Amino acid sequence: MKYLIINGSPRKKNTWSIVKQIESNLDGEFEEVHLIKEKIPLCNGCFKCFEEGESECPHFEFVNPIVEKIKECDGLIITSPVYALNVTGLLKNFFDHTAYFYHRPSFFDKKALVAVSTAGAGHNKVAKYIDETLRHWGFNKNYKIAIAFGAREHPEAKEIDKIDKTAQRFRKDLESKKLHGPKFMDLIFYNAWRAMTQADEPNLADKEYWENTDLVNHEFAPIVKLNIIQRMCGKLFFFIFKRMF
Ligand SMILES: Cc1cc2nc3c(=O)[nH]c(=O)nc-3n(C[C@H](O)[C@H](O)[C@H](O)COP(=O)(O)O)c2cc1C
Predict the structure, then answer these.
(1) Could you give the number of structural domains in the chain?
(2) What is the pTM of this model?
(3) Over 90: is that where the pLDDT of 184 sits?
(4) Same domain, 97 and 156
């Protein structure tokens, strides 16, 4: 298994101690991306990724190598400490540069383990935000570990137990290669973006992506099996959004 670790912490301390404990439960290769070292300039809001395609981003050379690593990995481990009740600016800047994946979801066969540390507050909310972001990108399943360290620098026994159990569930799920069915909200967002490609004046970069990948002809990414209810919901959401747009 190839694991990619995207570290949103500027240092290797509390959050990194969770990563080390996760690693002790997994077998395989680990590649590390420390966003602090990547020196990605701030997103300047030019909209080029949305409107002209991600390769037109003025920071493509910084962002794309990381995106390619995500495409190549079997499992993603993504981390952030809580900063001012949110992810770090480092991780948020990376998410801003990859926001085009909301329009053009891609990673339908990927699974992630989200690791968040905090002193006292915001850890569950931040882990949920990272999970939601990845789901918008298309990720199939995300596991979450969120720990309040207080004044400590390392997890205590019951937290280690929780990390181990979650990391082992993540590993087994990856090894099974099973793809889980989409959640209700995944079907809604997928079909909203799909329907937007059918609008009178669609976003051309999005339309090209949805058509070239043939996703436009499916209620959800075809590699993910849908039950009859999910398929009917997908059709219904597409029909409603198409009329709206
Ligand atoms: C700029 C900054 C903002 C922070 N904001 C919060 C916060 O809103 N709530 C909180 O409980 N801890 C906050 N913390 C504490 C860190 O989340 C906590 O110490 C974390 O475990 C540090 O992880 P690290 O060792 O990977 O840097 C903040 C720390 C820094 C440096």
Answers:
(1) 2
(2) 0.98
(3) yes
(4) yes
